[in-house]
Each structure stands twice: as C-alpha cells, then as structure tokens.
Specification:
The chain is an alpha/beta fold. It has 8 helices and 7 strands; from the N terminus they run E-H-E-H-E-H-E-H-E-H-E-H-H-E-H.
Length: about 260
C-alpha cells in the first residue's frame, strides 16, 4: 500500500536516493532539502525521471521550515529523520561552536521535528518515525567523536521514544549505515582542516585514512526503503553485514577494556 513519506536531507546522499526510490515505487514523497538550489535541482531530476514528488525547502535548523513541514494537510505516514552533518577532530581540540553545531542539527533539530510529527501520529493512533543513526552511534570513533556522540544521543532518544510511543500505535526504528560512498564521510573527515591551524594544538591531526573500503550506497538506500515499507521492520538495521558483526564484536570487547 502506498505511503506518504516526509524525508529530511533529501538534497543529497541517502535522502535523495530514498526519495527517488520511493517515488518510483508509487509512494507519495515529500522531499525536504536544506537549501533552495537543492530544491530546484531535485525537482528537475524528478521531472526528468518522470517521477511525481513534492520537493520543499526544509532546513531542519529553521523553525519556519519545520513549521511549514508540520502544517501539511496531507497525513504523513512515515517521517524519515535523515538530515545530518559530520564534523571531525580530536575531542581535546574541537572548537565548542563546531561541536554544538553537530548536536543542533543531528540531535536537537531532529528531535523537534520528530516531536511535532509524533504528536500528530499519537492523535491518530498510527505512524512511523525512521531515524538515520549510524554505526558511529554504537561504537567508538576516534577523531570523529562529535559526530559519534550525536549519534549515540540519537540512539538514546530512539530507544526511549520506541517504548514511549509504542502504546499509542506509533513505531520508532533506526537505520545505522556504516561507510558508504555518498561523499559524506570524505567531506566529514576534511572538516577539521577548516579550523586546525587557527590555534595552538597539543594533540595530533587525524591520521591520513584511505576511504577505499566504502560500500555502494545503493545497498543502504534499498535497505532504508525496505524499512520504510515493511509491515514489521526490525528496531535496528545495520548495513553492511560486516559492520553489524564489527559492532557486536566491539560492544562485547568493551566489557574487557581497560586503561
């Protein structure tokens, strides 16, 4: 059965792929893009592909944009809370405004939008909120601690919301991507170069890491679509399978970790 799905972060990466994929399968898609040029580009891409899609400006940090999305007369069956940013750098050095910016987008703005749609879903007794978390929300990630911390916060939020909203017929689930070739990880690693030389540093820069083991994003996009469409999806879905194995192994190893 066709669903109405609102997607944040649809201007690029997973969000764009999921928006196009769902529209191709006949779902009613409301694709939220952060900036107007992304809106224009995605509208053109959808039209060229012969897809019907409602593309809107939805910067999750903007109260105006969030309220606009929440004011739709159309019943949203699924909120795909996907927008996010990555800022890298060692925890002892990362500027606090940079750290706060990660939480503003990945945690606070995402939660505000989820709260708005959760209230509507509770009132009608149905709905699903799918959060893009990350493998980084389940394991340690040196030199990417700000992003990992924000996704650990997302995990805590989703765990609570899952139990709190279940009695009202509202489902909360997560999708946890590992490393995929969307460009997100590449630019995320680069972000610390913007501020690294602007002060005196006492720790080392992120060691050079080759991003040559990233996976085809189509695998994750297909999985996200499956989770959105499924009648009874798993609470947590990690991809690729090798990442799921790594997460379980590392979480077990934590119990033996020492200083």
């Amino acid at each position: 059965m066709a669903k109405t799905v609102l997607i944040t972060g649809a201007g690029s990466g997973f969000g764009r792929g999921v928006a196009m994929g769902l529209a191709a399968k006949g779902h009613k898609v409301i694709a939220g893009c952060q900036i107007w040029p992304q809106v224009t580009e995605l509208r053109a891409a959808a039209a060229e592909a012969g897809l019907e899609m409602n593309v809107i400006k939805l910067d999750v940090l903007s109260e105006i944009d969030r309220n606009h999305a929440l004011a739709f007369d159309t019943q949203v069956d699924v909120l795909f809370n996907n927008a996010g940013i990555m800022e890298s750098g060692p925890m002892a050095e990362i500027p606090m405004p940079v750290f706060r910016a990660v939480f503003e987008t990945n945690v606070f703005a995402a939660l505000e939008l989820a709260q708005g749609f959760a209230r509507k879903m509770v009132q009608r007794g149905s709905g699903r909120i799918v959060w893009t978390s990350s493998v980084a929300g389940l394991v340690k990630v040196p030199f990417d601690g700000a992003y990992a911390a924000s996704k650990h916060a997302v995990e805590g939020i989703c765990s609570a919301m899952h139990e709190e909203l279940k009695p009202y017929g509202v489902e909360v689930v997560t999708v946890n991507p590992g490393a995929f070739r969307t460009g997100f990880n590449d630019t995320g690693m680069e972000t610390m170069d913007q501020w690294w030389k602007q002060g005196e540093r006492v720790t080392g820069h992120w060691p050079v890491r080759e991003l040559n083991h990233q996976h085809d994003p189509e695998e994750m996009i297909a999985t996200m679509i499956e989770v959105i469409e499924a009648e009874k999806p798993s609470y947590r879905t990690v991809r690729p399978a090798s990442a799921e194995e790594m997460v379980k192994r590392e979480q077990q190893e934590i119990w033996q970790r020492s200083v």
